[in-house]
Each structure stands twice: as C-alpha cells, then as structure tokens.
Amino acid sequence: MTxxxxxxxxxxxxxxxxxxxxxxxxxxxxxxxxxxVLAHAPSVSDRQLDVVFGSxxxxxxxxxxxxxxxxxxxxxxxxxxEAARDELVPILTAEQGKPLQDAGLEIDFSALxxxxxxxxxxxxxxxxDDDSRYAVIVRRPLGVVAAITPWNFPISLAMWxxxxxxxxxxxxxxxPSPYTPLTTLAxxxxxxxxxxxxxxxxxxxxxxxxxxxxxxxIPRKVSFTGSTATGKSVAQSAALDLKRVTLELGGNDPAVVxxxxxxxxxxxKLFWSAFGNNGQICxxxxxxxxxxxxxxxxxxxxxxxxxxxxxxxxxxxxVQLGPLNNKKQLDIVSGLxxxxxxxxxxxxxxxxxxxxxxYFFQPTILDQITDGARIVDEEQFGPALPIVRFxxxxxxxxxxxxxxxxxxxxxxxxxxEHAAAVAEQLDAGSVSVxxxxxxxxxxxxxxxxxxxxxxxxxxxxxxxxxxxxxVIHTPPRGERPEGSA
Length: 485
Ligand code: NAD
Hints:
Elements: H1 6-10, E1 14-15, E2 18-19, E3 26-31, E4 36-42, H2 49-63, H3 67-83, H4 85-96, H5 100-119, E5 125-129, E6 134-141, E7 144-148, H6 154-168, E8 171-175, H7 182-191, E9 200-202, H8 209-215, E10 221-225, H9 228-240, E11 244-248, E12 254-257, H10 263-275, E13 287-291, H11 295-308, H12 327-342, E14 346-349, E15 364-367, H13 374-377, E16 384-390, H14 393-401, E17 408-412, H15 416-423, E18 430-433, E19 453-454, H16 459-464, E20 467-474
Parallel strand pairs: 7-8, 7-10, 8-9, 10-11, 12-13, 12-17, 13-16, 15-16, 17-18
Antiparallel strand pairs: 1-2, 3-4, 5-6, 6-20, 11-19, 14-15
The structure holds nicotinamide-adenine-dinucleotide.
C-alpha cells in the first residue's frame, strides 16, 4: 500500500450492513516501517454512536433467536475471511509492521476461531429433574457488546470477541486501535457480505471514541483488550452502568529456567517466546529468571539468536522482526533500555534504536540486571529482554510473583513433574512447562490474574462470558398434564 487518501473511500466503517452514511472527517494512519502516513481512516464521533449502537440493537432482536442460522453464518464468515486473505495481509503488514507471513497466520487463526465457536455446543444444563422439581439452566445472550482492541493483533484479538459474542446471540460494535484501524475496517466489509445487517458494526476514530463507547447506554457488555491503565478506566466507566466486562490487560510474564535445563534444546523456543511479533505480545516472555548454573550459557544462546534475527520492513522476504508499531511504543522500549543501561546493566547485544526511517529497535538482551530495574518490573512490550540470575527456587517464585501483573508464565526443566509443581505456585492465568503461552489456544480459557485482567476468553468458559445464566424452574415432569413435554 502506498500513502493515499483513497483508502478512506475503500475502508469506510460498516454500520447496519453498509457504509456509514455521510461524510466523515479522517485521521492519519502511519506505516511503522517507514514512519510516513499510509492512509487516512474515517473518524466516527461520539454523537454518531447512537446510530451505530442503534443498528446493533435492532439486529439483536432477530439474531438472538435462531441459533442454527448463527452457527451457519459464522462458518460462512470463516470462509469469507480466508477468501479475503490476500487482500487483508498486505494491509495488516503495512499498518501493524509484522512480517507478511505473520500477518497471514493472524488471518488463518482468526478463521479457526470462527469455526471453533460455530461448532461449539452450548448445551442446556438440567440441574434438577426429580419428583419435586425440574430446573434447567439456559444461557441467554446479553445484548449489544462493545468490543475494543489494541494494535498488536488487530484481527485475531477482534475475533476472540466477535466469534463467541455472535455465537451466543449478541450483536457487536467493534472499534480497533487508531494505530491499526485499516485491516479491521476491511474485515468489516468482508464479513458484512455474510452476516445479517447490523450484527457486526465496525467503526474507527481516535480516542476518546473508546471511552464514549463504554459510556454509551446501549451496550450491555464491554469486551476490552489493551493496557492495564486503560482497562481500569473501562472498568470504572462500565461500573456506572453495571455493564459486564471482560478485560484482557497487560503482563510482565516471567520464564523461570531451572538448573537442570539443556540450554541448546530450549533456546529457540525461549527466544521466539520473547521476540515473536517483535516482543509486542501480551503473553511474550518479558523477563527470564535463569538459575545461576545455566545463566551464562543461556545469555549467550539468546544473544546469538538476537544477533542473527533479521529485522526490517515486514514486506521484505526473510524479515523475521518488523518495527515497533508506533513512536510511543518505540519511546517506551528505548526509555526502559536506556534506564537499565544507565543503572549498570549490560547490553550483550543491541541496546539502541536502529537509525533511519521507521520505528526500529535492535533486538536486545540485557544482562547484569535484577529486580528493581524498571525493565524487569514493568511491561516493555518490545524487543528487549532482561535475563536475571537466581539461585533458589523458593526465592525465585516470590520474585516472579512480586508484580501487579499475572498474565502468563513458564517453567523450564528436565523434570516436568517438578516444573509443574513450581508452575502452580506462580501468580498467572496460565503457566506452561517447557514452552511459553502454550495454553493460548481456542479451546482453553485465557485470562489474567491481578492487574492482568478480569474474566477469560476462549473455550466454553469464554463463550459463557457473553451470556447471562437464566434458570427455568417448572413443576416436576411427572406432574405435567398428559401430552406436555
Ligand atoms: P491501550 O490501552 O492504549 O488501547 C487499547 C484500546 O483501547 C485502543 O483501541 C484504544 O483506542 C482504546 N482506548 C483508549 N482509551 C480508552 C478508554 N478510556 N476507554 C475505552 N477504550 C479506550 O493499549 P495498546 O497500547 O493499544 O495495547 C498494548 C497493551 O495491550 C499492552 O499493555 C498489552 O499487554 C495489552 N494487551 C493485552 C492482551 C491480553 O489479551 N491480555 C492482548 C494484547 C495486548
């Protein structure tokens, strides 16, 4: 994609199954590999939200009723998304920065999520069926869902919300990050061909549009993925109207590497668990605690991989790590690394911005650093990894847990039983052994402890968060008149 305002015509919001009516002002979207304006996206205003949410509210009346049609529509949506893969992938790389092949995987996973939820049964649960009573639990949709997403995985994180919300019978208004609105708008246009009008509405606009969505009276639930700071604002706003929330927030995910590990066999996995998507993954390894007996070897093994990783424009063949998505995030990473180096840490490799256009930072491994350094204690969300030494397992558990965050964690050891026992002591929503974030899949619950969130996404547990329990209580079946069910 080249910089042009034509995209404003191509990528209009989808409301009520069609382009949003009327002229909209626009805002620039930057290509992070070049640092230049890529396109202009339309800006929906707070006042226009009545039209947007009104569309979702009208569509809800029919959509909630016919479960087989909903499931069929989600399957058609998966097919449509896959058919649009070649159209969506270059837009995603251009606005997000990730390599083309990673952008392709994001679309593939999104289709998988749609199919998974289309196929997922939502059985009624008969709790009592005896001589005294018959009681069944029914899961009813909530109504309109306001879905708000961040810039690191605009499509797949949107699908984590859209697929279960629609499957359960809700309708959705989705707003992507203003850093990455284009692919989501394009996806909205693709999916409106297979979903009834108003079921999925996709809008864009700079903040405070997100805050206006959470304050709007129509949505009954806010499903939010983003930073902890914004998540707290969302929770406050939703509380005023008792809207349900699911909050998937920040993390400072530790990997604990025990003394008996074979460094060579895990170095690749550990490196990519920290540096995938250029470190811009909520569940990326953000700090490694390495036992003193393996620490030096591990530092060298990871540094070697950081030295040879290919960084560049995600459209170029062979590139493994793209730019940071935006200048603000580049400044955060740069500031945290600078702070660590100023306090005596050693950059075994990297440590600096990459000169030239775009928001590039050298893949960085930091040594001679410990808890208390900001890059160990805070979420860096970028390609810089501190490796901290430890000697005692009990002590490392309390150091790993000394964080407001609790998203994911991992334990690495030749002794899986022992590692699993250590895993259970860590404050995190999911902990993997000899892998990191292995449980972040469509059919297991994913959510953070402490400041990393409220509620879960994925699997039947995630589906249930888009429903309200209703108990239907009737006289016992034996007492019903002849011929009734
Ligand atoms: P962010 O909180 O700045 O923005 C997220 C979204 O919220 C954007 O769409 C933004 O426009 C919107 N927003 C901003 N202010 C708002 C408000 N007051 N009310 C409602 N919406 C508002 O986050 P970001 O910088 O886009 O994303 C990076 C953060 O997201 C990191 O902290 C990362 O860990 C987190 N994240 C978490 C998960 C997870 O599943 N736990 C996944 C991906 C990213």
